[in-house]
Amino acid sequence: MEYSPSDLTQRERYKVLTSFVLPRPIAWVTSQGADGVVNAAPFSFFNVFCEDPPLCMFAVNRRPDGREKDTLVNIQRLGEFVVNLTDEPLARAMHETSGDFPPEIGEPDYLGLKLAPSSRIAVPRLVEAPFAMECKTWKLIDVNGDRQLIMGEGIHFHIRDELWDREAMRVYMERYHPIGRMFADRYCRTDDRVVFPAAEGAKTK
How far apart are CA 82 and CA 123, in angstroms? Predict the structure, then answer.
């Protein structure tokens, strides 16, 4: 079957894209309000895009009633945030932070998630995250007035000690159990892995 996006509603386009572009990594973004309240929210329209400079991007849409989400308000004010990644032990807490919290109630505080100061920005990171990237806003891109693409430059990395081989500069995959987003309330584990030999390319005579 085929669809032209222009023939679908916004919700229908969302359902098509999120049903097939998966699993998607999840940016568990911490940001800080003017009153010091730390917000944590997950975004699965997310990925990293290059290493020089280290850039990531995630999308923030408006709430159903048209209000801007706390994450966007905080980032527009401060120009910085932390992208925390999620593994299996943190998956349920990450999911819970997708619920509706008023600006004066910080998800980490409410759910008992531990915070730690970042090294180069004011926004705290989640202590238990397997990987956290302190970011400065690189660019904001408005999409149709109802969504912002937030591009951040990673300026400092935090890695859980037991996950990283410092000499080989590689992750210990048998110790790292990231969670991916599918669609709706569905997530996936990533422990069923396949390894292929190096690609040979075109064979010439």
Answer: 7
